[in-house]
From TrEMBL:
Keyword Signal set for record: yes
Organism: Stegodyphus mimosarum (African social velvet spider)
This protein's record includes keyword Signal: yes
Domain MAM: 26-172
PROSITE patterns with a match to the protein in the record: MAM_2
Name of protein: MAM domain-containing protein
Entry GO CC: membrane
Position of the signal peptide: 1-22
Pfam families listed in its UniProt record: MAM
Record keywords, A-Z: Signal
Length: 172
């Protein structure tokens, strides 16, 4: 983490200002590859990197590959090991949802001490289009993030996509 302190005199008052700059540990727009995200086992669908136009945005994203399963569950994860001590962080990503079949979408953080759900929404909260998730987390060398989604095709079309994933040192 980078900090700087400036001392300024204004009308005879001394003010001390500390500026905290976030250090970006990881960023991925999926334009060149999957950035180390891998599909988890025991799912009925997979995340794939695809060049697509969604909600007015063009480019590569990670999205669910449609298949014949009625209920499609997909999980992908990414490990981070650059941080040795427990450090505050900000995990963020853009996500796109569309359709009545989209039932659930969540982010889980896994560390040596266990797993914890850090963000989620279900079918009652779905807003079609692109949204941004920003989640304050504590990170260390054992941190792994998992994105999980469920689409039920019997209820209609469902689309979930992820783009611009980032992890920064400092709370959101």
């Amino acid at each position: 983490m980078f900090t700087s302190t400036a001392l300024t005199f204004v009308f005879g008052l001394a003010l001390s200002l500390t500026v905290v700059n976030s250090e970006q540990l990881f960023t991925c727009d999926f334009e060149t590859d999957t950035c180390g995200f891998t599909n988890e086992e025991r799912t009925t669908a997979t995340w794939v990197r695809k060049d697509i136009e969604l909600g007015g945005r063009e480019g590569y994203v990670m999205t669910i590959e449609p298949n014949d399963a009625t209920v499609q569950r997909a999980k992908m994860g990414k490990s981070y090991s650059q941080i040795q001590d427990r450090t505050p962080g900000c995990f963020s990503f853009d996500y796109y949802t569309f359709g009545n079949g989209t039932r659930y979408f969540s982010a889980t953080q896994q560390r040596n001490v266990g797993k914890a759900g850090i963000w989620s929404f279900d079918d009652t909260e779905i807003i079609s289009g692109w949204q941004k998730a920003r989640i304050s987390v504590t990170i260390d060398e054992s941190t792994r993030f998992i994105l999980y989604t469920m689409i039920n095709r019997s209820l209609g079309e469902g689309v979930v996509a992820v783009d611009n994933v980032a992890l920064e040192v400092n709370h959101c």
